[in-house]
Amino acid sequence: MREAASDTLRKALALVVLLIAAWILFKIVVGVVAALFWVVLAVLAVVAIVWALRTL
């Protein structure tokens, strides 16, 4: 009985660790995607400014 409870506790702890690691990884991926989005947006803004200046 004690061994089964210990095994269940270890599995529960492993699940919690896995969920925390997945959450951290998800936040990192979202951060990288957001950073890439802002870089692309900044480049597009510069291109738009150059185009507008050449058009005028």
Q: How would you describe the overall organization of this protein?
A:
0% of the residues are buried. It contains one helix and no strands. The protein is rod-shaped and about 80 Å long. It has one domain. The protein is 96% helix and 0% strand. With 56 residues, the protein is mainly α.
Summarize the structure.
By secondary structure, this protein is mainly α.
Helix content: over 70%
Strand percentage lies at under 5%
What is the radius of gyration computed over CA atoms, rounded to a whole number of angstroms?
24 Å
Can you tell me the residue ranges where pLDDT is under 50 for at least 5 consecutive residues? none
Please give the number of β-strands: 0
- SSE string, helices as H and strands as E: H
Which structural class should the secondary elements be placed in?
mainly alpha
What number of structural domains do the residues give? Answer: 1
Mean pLDDT: 95
- Give the count of helical stretches: 1
Give the N-terminus to C-terminus distance in angstroms.
Answer: 82 Å
Q: Can you tell me the overall shape?
A: rod-shaped
Largest sheet: none
Question: Any chance you could write out the topology, listing elements then pairs?
Answer:
Blueprint lengths: L1 H54 L1
